[in-house]
Amino acid sequence: MKRLLLLVFCLSIMGALWATGTTEGDDGPITIKFWTHEDPARTEIEERYIQEFEAANPGVTVERVTNSSKKVPELLLTAFAANEGPHFFNTQIEDGYAYIANGRVAPIDAQAAGFTSDSALINAYVDGVLDPVSVGGDVYGLPLELTNWAIYLNKRIFRDAGLDPDADYPRTWEDMVEVSEAIAIRDGQILTRRGYDFRYPYYLVSLIPMVEQLGGQLISDDGQTAIVGDEAWLKVLTFMQQWGPNGMNLGSPTYTNARKTFNQDNNDIAMALSGLYQAGRIRNDNQEFYDSGDWMVIPYPQFEDAVKEVGALYYGHYYMVNIQVPEREQKMAWKLIGYMLSHPEEYLDRVGLTQPTKALMASKTFLSTPYADVFAADMERSHIVYYAEDSARMQELVKEAVEAVMLSGESPEKALASLKVKAQELLDQQ
Amino acid sequence: MRGGIERKMARWGVAFVMPAIVFFTLFSFYPIVSAFLTSLTSRKILSLLKPDFVGFRNYGYLLSSSDFWNSIRATAVFTLGTFIPLLIFSLVIAFFITGMKRGQRSMQLAYYSPAILSSVVAAVIWLSILDPRGLANQFLNTLLGIQGVDHHWLASSVMVQFSTILVYFWKYIGYFVIIFITGLASIPPSVYEAATIDGASRWQSFGRITLPLLRPTIAFVSIMSMLQCLKTFSTQYLFTQSGAPGAPINVITLNIYNTGIRDHLIGRASAMSIILFVIMLGFTAVQLRVSGGDKVSY
User: A253 to chain B: which residues are within 8 Å by CB?
Assistant: First the structure.
């Protein structure tokens, strides 16, 4: 028995020594792990960039791992919690900011990323787009995309409902109700065709601008007060209550996701909120619909009594590098990121992603991209989405309030009161 | 001499039990202790800094939080609404299947098949059934002879709770039926034969023989099903991800997940898991005491 235990002990010690003794030398081969979200069109071009990069950098292997966009934040978080994060990744700024705040990502190595200096890097991008990833004079991320949403419209469904898409498209939220009612087909209480429906979980991007149009705010300018402007919030919550199954029954979070259904052109939904990238996805999912010319993009609507014009808020997907990997591997990761991002026109043309460099925004490719002007005009009257360590929780609180009025029969006043208390408590905890 | 043999056998006994003890220590006991220690800190999941020791402040916060008490309510509703019907129906179905002269195997297979599906797949299947345009509305409307009524399976606070219970009941009923069938098979046929000779009816046999002799199995099934219900997560998670309102089905496990992963507050999430652990431990002890454990006499 003692011999057996001794043998097990010796084997474990040997195993531990072997496991810790396999670190690579300073010039040995490197494997860079890159985690990102699924996007077939992007995968196609990035796999090519990676092959080219590997050929130009012998000894470097890149493992590109994709997961659904909903799954990536959770996978990243658990991996980083176990100190096993990938070399680099991209994530939305609402999720990504916590990595900067907690010192989990490295500042950009501008030269490795292909810029002559830090200031050359900052100057290459449109003013302000690096602000969300800049802390204490350092920049921690490079944008894979900067996206805002506008409304995709199916002209065929409009015509089928007796509407002229070019003349009757909704300019205001009040129009949106009217047009959606004209388009909706119901079997009793069950909607079999919807006019428009919201992108429900993404309230920070798509609902907050409605509040801001009416003069309200998520967080006050001084950052001290949450949920500002009761009247604006009440009007938006009442609007959502009326939109839902217990009001005018024009849509609900429990119906199939409007953005995905839109591409199928199956007489299910006439309008959906999405980014410039949606055009590429329509092309991938339904080439015939893409080529038919029976779709168009219209600006994000405004309230009739809006006190200011606000488009859907924009968000950025930023590439960030894990600070816990050796410095040599960090440099290589930035080099690869720089290489991939040196093709902004192909990203725009093939994937529909806007990488906000000054050069791209002035390029012919951008200016000739169908409906890029609609998105650009909306972006001008918009601002970046709320980002902080707690932005996911803040979005959840807004979601709770909207669901309470839409689905649980709660009054907008009660839902707002609860939202104000919880949001303020969250803000105070920061 | 005899003592020497016993000691030698005992050593082998320890050797055979050791892997299980090591496994339990590593994968159950250590995480429990670690979660308890974490629950006494303000640890955030991404932070590399040493977390502050906050004592029982996380527990104090939770006990005064309406969100946490809502989770207790949601878990209690789900557990009572699922485990009592599961216990009763699985016993009744097992009794009928055991009494069948033909087709026992295929019935067992039919009932058990949902249990082999992953909870995620089961929830996805049910999401399409419970969609406003899905089979659930069509079936119920046909059954009631009405048209176009949306029963809001996922959209109303009450119905979404019922829907999660329905999915769980469908998924696990077969598993507990099989356990009851095994328990029923372990009752000696001679006891029934003697009762039949004495003139006992089928229902009398069930009430006077089957139920008392099945007590250990009933205790086992009730504890297992209750623990499973208290740990429910994936159905509620997928439903809320697909647009269902969160508050009515925000069971403790879902709250733990959201607090730890979405809000990054791993210290507070650990406190919640310790509370859940204590609840589960308490209920198990009570059930064992009430049911008399595995005591059965012929």
Answer: 155, 243-244
Length of chain B as a residue count: 298
Q: Which domains does chain B have, with CATH numbers?
A: 49-291 (1.10.3720.10)
Domains A30-148+314-380 and A150-313+390-429 share a fold: yes
Fold of the domain spanning A30-148+314-380: D-Maltodextrin-Binding Protein; domain 2 (3.40.190)
pLDDT tens for residues B143-202?
A: 999 999 999 999 999 999 999 999 999 999 999 999 999 999 989 989 989 999 999 888
Interchain CB distance below 8 Å, B133 and A102: no
Quick check: A252 and B155 CB within 8 A?
yes
Architecture of domain A150-313+390-429: 3-Layer(aba) Sandwich (3.40)
Give ∠ CA B79-B84-B88 in degrees, rounded to 5. 155
Greater confidence (A375 vs B102) lies with A375
Instruction: Name every residue whose Cβ is closer than 8 Å to that of residue A234 and which is 6 or more positions away in sequence.
Output: A412, A413, A416
DSSP A194: E
Phi, psi of A28 (to 5 degrees): -75, 175
Name which of A60, A104, A66, A62 is nearest A82 in CA terms.
A104
pLDDT value of position B51: 92
Confidence band (pLDDT; 50, 70, 90) for B294? low
**A323 Cβ under 8 Å from any chain B Cβ:** no
Q: Which of B48, B152, B247 sits opposite A102 (nearest CB)?
A: B48
Question: ipTM beyond 0.90?
Answer: no
